[in-house]
Specification:
Chain lengths: 316, 239
């Protein structure tokens, strides 16, 4: 019991420590693809450190929402970390507190407050980014729901630890078409949800074209640091759900020993690195879609997820 | 030994289902892709997946005929038909994008989904009518792709995607067929493949001729051309 609580907290620690590294590696690899040298992979840590040292400026016109949002954006990914398999393939202490739908809700709560905070200040770019996020959000929502329905339909559960077991035994389950199509749909969702390239340009500095970034333009100092860190953790958590539950349910700790759990850390980081390579190839070879083409992108994600559900029906 | 066999069969079934799922996705892609070149690539992928499914079913039921079907499919649909299309139709047609479909793409996709669900419910009685060993995912998926091809024919306005829609319909019918008729003589198979090739050739030449005379292959614009009578045409030229 004590062990499981400890491992659960260890997961949170891993997510806290390694999530900026993921962002750093992505940036560095993208620069390398563009034949530049790029910043060090530890740059996000330095950025965070720098932000924590600086003073914070808050508009007098803003309300408590603006001040509370950084904490909410920072806390929500940590909550989700408690629910999902990051290092172990057996359920930990908090695993049955909520299922994948609950985790989705908690993550959406962070997004909701970020949107409110963007509207809260009188910055003209904030509300624009906020309304665009809502547009992407309400298009992504049905896909999320169908993906969860299909997972529940195939695996008879929405607890990530149980879902993950479903794909492994027997091994032919892994090749099940509904599983493969779910992976494709969820991948497109991650791209949309974390503001990656076909939907939004994470490294763009042009305010009029921003979707995700423009919501945090008004933050400075600690607030900016917390929001940024929260964003890194959100990406890390989504990658963990995608990789550990759906794509590669192998390589996690299966014994309740400290060494075994620690051994899982490099394996999980390796999986994430492979995923990042794919992500960088996509980001470097595709162009950002025009705003109203996002409907088509998420429309195809929706079709893929419903097709996954239909394939399950066909095989019954 | 028996256990090994069972595992092999279950993996083959999974793989066949997977080919079916991707087959269905390519049909959605044909509905939603704007570029003529993209639809052609999707069609090639679809035909290859059809061949894969035929091959896997051949392994599963140890039927030589299905290997033949796979081979004929690869040669005719993945190599010869695209080659003929590229040769006959002008290169410019492939680079153009089709902007004005009858419905916009998201609603097209939703209607396609509805069609797939309808296909599923339509094939339930059919599945119950046939013997157990013929049942499988191939039948609903084949019907669904048949419907999606027909839908492509209804909403597309460019000549090449229309032709691809027609060919996708044929692919769908085949996909359902390979699970039903496992001992179809190869001769029939060859005849159908040659038929398809000739259809593509004739349509390709037709598209080429239309493109040369009118300068466009937009089928949607042709209704207007037809409505003009000879007298009006003469008046316009001032004679």
């Amino acid at each position: 019991m004590i062990e499981r609580i400890f491992f659960n907290l260890l997961q949170v620690l891993v997510v806290l420590v390694f999530s900026p590294l993921v962002a750093g590696v992505i940036n560095r690899l993208k620069e390398i693809v563009q034949s530049k040298r790029g910043p060090s992979i530890f740059q996000p840590y330095r950025d965070l450190w720098k932000f924590f040292q600086k003073d914070e400026v808050i508009s007098e016109e803003s309300s408590w929402i603006f001040r509370a949002t950084p904490y909410i954006a920072f806390i929500t990914p940590i909550f989700v970390t408690l629910l999902i398999p990051v290092l172990t393939d057996y359920p930990l202490f908090f695993a049955f507190m909520a299922d994948m739908v609950g985790g989705g809700f908690v993550l959406a709560l962070g997004g909701f407050f970020k949107t409110l905070a963007a509207v809260d200040t009188a910055n003209p770019y904030g509300p624009m980014g906020a309304s665009r996020t809502r547009m992407v959000g309400f298009l992504a929502e049905p896909v999320f729901i169908i993906v969860f329905f299909t997972v529940a339909f195939v695996a008879d559960s929405t607890i990530p630890y149980i879902v993950q077991k479903r794909w492994m035994s027997p091994p032919s389950n892994f090749l099940e078409p509904s599983h493969v199509l779910l992976m494709a749909a969820f991948f497109m969702l991650i791209l949309a949800e974390t503001g990656r390239i076909p939907v939004d340009n994470p490294s763009g500095h042009f305010e009029l074209a921003m979707i995700d970034e423009s919501k945090m333009l008004e933050y400075s100092g600690k607030g900016a640091a917390l929001i940024k860190w929260g964003g890194y953790m959100k990406l890390f958590v989504l990658l963990c759900i995608f990789l550990n539950v759906l794509v590669t349910p192998w390589g996690l700790a299966y014994k309740q020993t400290f060494g075994n759990v620690l051994l899982a850390v490099p394996l999980v980081l390796f999986k994430i690195f492979i995923f990042i390579l794919v992500l960088v190839i996509i980001e470097s070879s595709l162009a950002k879609l025009r705003l109203f083409r996002i409907t088509e992108f998420l429309g195809s994600a929706f079709v893929t997820s419903v097709a996954a559900m239909l394939m399950r029906l066909f095989s019954l | 030994m028996i256990n090994d066999n069972l595992i092999a069969v279950s993996i083959l079934d999974s793989l066949n289902m997977l080919a079916g799922g991707l087959f269905l996705l390519t049909a959605f892609g044909i509905v939603a892709t704007r570029q003529a070149k993209g639809t052609l690539t999707l069609f090639i992928t679809q035909s290859l997946l059809l061949a894969v499914s035929a091959f896997l079913l051949g392994l599963r039921h140890s039927s030589l005929h299905l290997y033949g079907v796979a081979l004929v499919n690869v040669v005719a649909k993945a190599i010869l038909i695209p080659w003929v299309l590229r040769k006959t139709v002008h290169e410019e047609v492939y680079t153009r994008r089709e902007i004005d479909q009858v419905l916009n793409i998201p609603s097209s996709l939703l209607i396609s989904l509805a069609l797939v669900i309808i296909a599923y419910f339509l094939t339930i009685p059919l599945q119950q009518a046939i013997a157990v060993e013929f049942r499988g995912p191939n039948i609903p998926i084949g019907f669904a792709v048949l419907f999606l091809g027909a839908y492509t024919l209804a909403v597309r306005r460019e000549a090449v995607p229309l032709l691809i829609g027609l060919l996708a319909m044929e692919n769908g019918a085949f996909f359902a067929g390979i699970s039903l008729a496992r001992t179809l003589p190869l001769l029939v198979e060859l005849a159908i493949a040659t038929d398809g090739l000739i259809i593509v050739f004739i349509t390709g030449v037709l598209i080429r001729a239309v493109h040369q005379h009118i300068g466009t292959t937009e089928v949607g614009a042709m209704a207007r051309l037809k409505e003009r009578t000879t007298d009006e045409a003469l008046e316009e030229t001032g004679q």
